[in-house]
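S., here's the first fold you wanted:
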Amino acid sequence: MGRTYRRNLGLMLLTGCLALIFMMGLSSAQENKSHLFRILERGVLRVGTSGDYKPFSFVVPKADVEKGREAKRDVDSRLSNKTGDQVLIGYDIDAAKKLAEDLGVKLEFVPFEWRNLIAGLVADKYDIAMSGITIRLERAKAVAFSEPYILIGSSPLVRKEHEKRFRSWQDVDRPGVRLVVTLGTSNDQIVSKRFKRADIKRITAPASTVAELLADRADATITDNIAAVMQVQDHPEDLHAVNPRHPFEKDFFGYPVQQGDQTWLN
């Protein structure tokens, strides 16, 4: 009887171990399932976006979209604060809509702050980020990027009254110049690398850098040349883009996703 008991106990333990191994394998398989299949099962594509970066992801009054035109938006409006009277638009917003349409799923936009862009992606708060995002080595260490889709460059955006004072980025990097930049962006990294003498102030949204300029709390900011041109179009009497056709540093934009998911990346 003792041997029978021990044999039965051994079988029970073996069965339990096999069941545990099976469940662990099942759990691991579910965890390792590509985002593509999760999206299709969920029926929703979650896209992280900032809602503050014209012309790629920004908010405008709904009435202006319905009229078929874009009006100047409040430079402090944020995706997280948008109401039923505001609409999210932009090049990457259109791309997100097309991606969801091709997948045959619904689309959900998830707001992020630039400083938390990569952390949100790693934490699986969204499946992909689409908001005019520069492909940089520091980011590529934590996430994977799609193929580049646009070449972008960095240019100073200054107050119109300083048009003759600032003719290059070197003119901006001088003692006493109040330089404002968005925390966590690629331009923040560029400023850290290149600008050694200007008085640097870091804030949390590209729209706010423009607000700082318009309120005369800053003399200049560093932004992407396309964004600089768009802001001058919105504020021709107040702002000036310095050499936007000849940016002092160039990068590519891409769409980041979690690492190790080649099926979704493809």
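And the second, which I think is the more interesting of the pair:
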Amino acid sequence: SKFGGDPNSVTLAGYSAGSASTFYHMLSPMSKGLFHKVIAMSCGVIQRGLIVEDPLKLTKKLAGLFNCSLSSSKEMVDCLRTIPASNITNQYKAMRSYYNLPMFVFGPVIEHHNTNGERFLLDDPVQLIKKKQYNHVPVVTGIVRDEFKERFAWMHTNSEETKRKLEFFNNNFYKVLPVILLYDDKTEKEKRQITDELQRFYPNGEQINNNTINGLGDAFADATIIHGEYTTAKLLAKYNNAPVYFYMFNYLGRYGHAHDSTTSKVLGPTHHDELIYLFYVLKGFPKFNTTDP
């Protein structure tokens, strides 16, 4: 109401990480009654790797990068609190394994045992939805056809660096793929079985090269965004007491966030591309009218 709006008609909207955050507000008892509708674009909450299963292990890895003592949780946390936030964010890349991946490193934590105050996330999202223990509001949610598929566009080039990367990728296929496609928590036997199935399904059993980039890109898009977003929407459609609308953005226009590095051709549509048409995105895109070709 302070901004001239209707306090009884508040819509939460978010994109990518903001989309997941919006869904988490649906799931949190702390957010009850604070909003009435949701627009969540290109990230669900039923995504592999999004929720941190072992936050202590992850925190120890971060603390080790700053030579903090790991002898007790208190000493470790006290040390991390002395480090500037910018230094911590600059170490984010070091928390990843290959090609600046996996996509998710830090994320939400389920607060099972915190009894000394409010808890934001009480249980696994699937269980909360199935038990209907969440905020039931109308939802518009969806995906872009080629979500993050461009992350492997570098494979289209024929540079020596690309050749080295591809050689490493294929020589370490059973190590790299579980990390970037978010199933590295499985047993070694399970990881090998899943990797074999993925290679048969997406790149048709071939080695990864610039001719099979589309297959790897599809696998990455499905693993990081599409499957989790679709599963979230499907589950909400079954249990939500209000309408759930799902979309897929499929328009490839003159502008886009991803380009072929050899031809400058727009790739996609990819992650964020529909925002070009919803908002005036300042960086990299001219202002255009709906009547433009």
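Why I say that: The chain has three domains: 1-51+107-152+225-293, 52-106, 158-209. The beta strands are 11-15, 37-41, 139-144, 244-249, 258-259, 266-267.

Talk tomorrow,
H.
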